[in-house]
Amino acid sequence: MMTIKGSCHCGATRFSIDVEPASLTQCTCSICSKGGALWAYYKPEDVRIEPQTSNATYRWQSMMVEHNFCPTCGCITYNRSPSWVDMKPDLANPQLSVNARLFDDYDISGLPVQVLDGKNLCRACATRTERGLHAGQSRQARPPQAYEAGRWHRLLFAF
Q1: Which of 22, 79, 85, 137 has its CA 20 to 30 A from that of 95?
Q2: Which range is least confidently modeled, 23-32, 78-87, 115-124, 142-151?
Q3: What is the CATH number of the domain that holds 94?
Q4: Which residues contact 140 (CB under 8 A, 6 or more apart)?
Q5: Does 56 fall in a domain?
């Protein structure tokens, strides 16, 4: 069994994984495309994240996905989210997606890359989400379970 190790640019976030990815996902949503991440999806117990000297988390839209990045060097590192079954969040089964571009000494060039059309899925979900907000309630105040189940993040953060 091969251990894959990786880190952000400055080394503040380090991780290791004992499971090689079968494929990677390129999401076209605004945050993923701007960050240039290629995602490898795992069960949380398959990824070991070393104690971090610094970390930052960004949540938006459904608030279900924790987008983690290094506040020092800015690298998008990993995400925590529910897994998705039939386009519905399975909150009892979380998943972790790791930015495979941060893998050290592991060639990802031969792995198949699946493209997730997060850009168009985001637009459709944002429209439905805005209509579904309760009167006087902000997006941040609304609990994740209150959002429609057909979320664009899948599959994404497979999101």
Answers
A1: 137
A2: 142-151
A3: 2.170.150.70
A4: 63
A5: yes
